[in-house]
Amino acid sequence: MTEPLPLYSGAQVRQMDRYAIASLGLQGYELMERAGLAAFGVLTDTWPSARRLQVVCGTGNNGGDGWVVARLALEAGWTVAVELLGDVERIQSDAETALRAFVTAGGTCHSRQPADQPPDFDADVLVDALCGTGGVGDLRPEHIAWVQAINDSGIPVVAIDAPTGLNVDTGNPRPVAVRAFATITFIAPKKGLFTGSAGDFVGALRIDNLGLPEQVLASAQPEAYLSDWSQLRRQLPARNVAHHKGLSGHVLVIGGNTGYSGAAILAARAALRSGAGLVSLATQPQTACVAVACQAEIMAHPIDNVADLKALLSAASCVVIGPGLGRDRWAQMCMSAVLERSPATVFDADALNLLALDDPASLKGGNHILTPHPGEAARLLGVATQRITEDRFIALRELTDRWRGACVLKGSGTLTGQPGLPARLCAYGNPGMASGGMGDVLAGILGGLLAQGLDVFTAAELGVSAHAVAGDVAARQGARGLLPSDVIDALRGVLAGLDGPQ
Predict the structure, then answer these.
(1) How far, in Å, CA of 252 to CA of 337, rounded?
(2) Domain with 207 in it: what CATH number?
(3) Hey, how many other C-beta atoms are within 10 angstroms of the C-beta on 314?
(4) Are residues 130 and 193 in the same domain?
(5) Is the pTM of this model over 0.90?
(6) Cα(198)–Cα(178) distance, rounded to whole angstroms?
(7) Is residue 189 in a domain?
(8) Same structural domain for residues 183 and 331?
């Protein structure tokens, strides 16, 4: 089995670049030539009939890559215009060498000062070589104006290394970013290109290692890994011909308080479709009646006292608590019983909100999965939600350090983590999944996998990807109007390998 794709910070990749030059004897300009050639390849592959190119350059090395692309296009017979933001005199070292090669090939550039208005863009394709991966603070006003002009032009853009303005560590714009049709990033993939808002700016992503040997990547420890469904699916427990329901575990879903019956039913249905042998539902009386009508295989139990709940807990392989739980006395009774017994547990929705009022020491043994969205994560850490969205990787590390076990930080590019290890990033899924009940389905999937004997981290990563891939399969009929039950319906084929990513 091949290893999942490692992801790095922008600083780590810049260090790899320096390592390649210092330790391998490579020249910086040779790497710049390779980068420019790879970027020009994206242009010719994606727009084979294009012949008019505008390249937007800054004065740094990212601009140097742009000069190489401009020269290659000029030598290929394209009409090329280069717009430089800043003084030509500020261009130094390898970027200056690339500029001189472009001029020697017959090219000219238009140098504009920060106070100048952005240029008019008129080309078949634009190349964004303004800033690349450099910088983590907000863009300067002149850069913001140019980014907005590029986006307003309506011309397809290829971003070199990263769209200008996108933080390659967090996936957030600073505060705006170029909306690229395609991005080519160099040496190693940056973690922020796959999470947060990155999907709105990166477009089709291509990774080119510039022909560097494996030892360059080995010079840094990955900060995360990209989940690969084809690899993860192989970790589903095998079944022999004598398999029976008792070997696939018993999930107990606790939730479905008054007015929230659908959440618990969705979780229970998802646990069944994930392969659990038995699924029970501990809930309010009215929800118990509805659950059986919706799905006959759910064993629904009306619960009004702790003794009845403890009897169900003693028979369960694992627990999913939170979907439609509420925060009233009934919900608190259920939470107390679960925390007292400490089974393998998925904490979701209001169970997380109740947990946030407790002490992390209430979770014993680390045999649990937390599934917060950013608001719930903020409550678990006692911080503002903005703090979570500013850097999801840091937030995940703080969650796992504080609450132990496995944690799933939901959102675009969902992150899964456990204490002390690199995060796993799920790049599957789509905006159609932004509807009420999707989290309940995920919780049920995680419970179904835990019941079949997977450890909490494996169940978390596998379940997150299965949920997202099933969402993508269901969205082929249209993302708008996609329902959680559509994801459940797609899940069986995804887990069987009959359907999956395209």
Answers:
(1) 13
(2) 3.40.50.10260
(3) 10
(4) yes
(5) yes
(6) 11
(7) yes
(8) no
Sign of CA dihedral 152, 158, 160, 162: positive
95 contact partners, CB below 8 Å, separation of at least 6 = 32, 59, 60, 61, 63, 64, 67
Domain range holding 252?
243-495
Residues whose CB falls within 8 Å of the CB of residue 225, separated by 6 or more in sequence, listed in order: 3, 4, 5, 6, 7, 422, 423, 424, 425
User: What is the CATH number for 436?
Assistant: 3.40.1190.20
Q: Write down how long the chain is.
A: 502
Partners of 283 in the β-ladder: 302
- Residue 90: its pLDDT value, please? 92
First to last CA, the chain: 20
Distances from the Cα of 428 to the Cαs of 208, 235, 249, 358, 478, in angstroms?
21, 18, 27, 33, 16
Looking at the fold, whether 73 and 145 belong to one and the same domain comes out as yes
Residues 298 and 347 in one domain: yes
Q: Give the pLDDT of residue 135.
A: 66
Token pair belonging to 276: 């659990």
**Tokens of residue 464, six digits:** 């997150």
Same-domain pairing of 211 and 300 = no
Report yes or no on 47 lying in a domain: yes
Task: Give the tens place of pLDDT for each residue, 36-45.
Answer: 999 999 999 9
Q: Are residues 190 and 113 in the same domain?
A: yes
**Distance (Å, whole) CA 225 – CA 218:** 14
> Last residue of a domain, which of 161, 195, 226?
226
Residue 2: per-residue pLDDT: 59
Give the whole-angstrom CA distance, residue 259 versus residue 262.
8
CB 156 within 8 A of CB 184: no
Helix 392-403 and helix 374-381, axial crossing angle in degrees, nearest 10: 50
What SS3 class is residue 398? helix
- Pairing relationship of beta strands 109-112 and 79-85 according to DSSP bridges: parallel
Same domain, 184 and 253: no
User: Do residue 165 and residue 134 come from a single domain?
Assistant: yes
- Percent above pLDDT 90 for the chain: 91
Overall domain count for the chain: 2
Phi-psi region of 402 (alpha: psi -120 to 50; beta: other; left: phi over 0): alpha
Quote the CA–CA distance of 284 and 286 in Å, as a whole number: 6
Rounded CA separation 486/470 (Å) = 9
Where does a domain end: 226, 253, 284? 226
Instruction: At 290, give phi and psi (nearest 5°).
Output: -65, -40
pLDDT above 70 covers what percent of the chain?
A: 99
Q: Which two tokens stand for residue 346?
A: 């998925």
* Backbone CA torsion sign across 441, 243, 459, 464: negative
> Vertex 206, ends 127 and 16: CA angle to 5°?
95
Q: For the chain, give percent helix, strand, coil, nearest 5.
A: 45, 15, 40
